[in-house]
Write a structure and sequence with these properties.
Elements lengths: L1 H10 L2 H6 L2 E5 L4 E5 L14 H23 L3 E12 L7 E5 L2 H14 L3 E11 L4 E13 L1
Antiparallel strand pairs: 1-2, 2-4, 3-6, 4-5, 5-6
């Protein structure tokens, strides 16, 4: 999956390649992505730029869709249809994006396989700094369709 994330960044989504995220954990329940605070991801206040935070949440939520598609050998189309974000404090360190919604994504994936229709589900992602403090909470609506 790390290689797939790298390929996705190189050929499909240049923002991923630009901010250079690292996949820390991915299984059927949890996904964790780290984005380092560095020149590419910082804003003028020396904290993580909102675009970098949104990209990290996007990856943490979307990796489960790729994981289940890869596991089953089925081609999927997925995108994020909605985003709600609450920024609780400035992210002045590296940020870890955590999603524990793997089973919800799997359920959406299975429903999309059986109905051949697009299925939408809301997924929660927490962004934490290196002190394990929550800096942002994202609710993302993923839209999945099996092709």
């Amino acid at each position: 999956m790390r290689r797939l994330l790298w390929l996705l960044g190189m050929f499909k989504i240049p923002m991923i390649a630009y901010i250079r995220p690292k996949l820390m954990l991915l299984d059927e329940h949890k996904a964790q992505v780290r984005i380092k605070l560095k020149r590419r991801t910082k804003n003028h206040l020396k904290s993580m730029y909102i675009g970098s935070l949104a990209a990290g949440a996007d990856m943490a939520a979307g990796l489960h869709a790729l994981y289940f598609a890869e596991e089953s050998g089925v081609k999927i189309s997925f995108a994020f249809k909605g985003l709600k974000a609450e920024f609780l404090k400035r992210a002045t360190t590296d940020v870890y994006f955590n999603s524990d919604e793997g089973q919800l994504v799997k359920k959406a994936f299975e429903e999309a396989m059986s109905t051949k229709e697009r299925v939408n589900k809301w997924i929660k992602v927490e962004a934490k700094n290196t002190n394990n403090e929550i800096v942002a909470v994202f609710d993302m609506e993923i839209s999945v369709k099996v092709q």
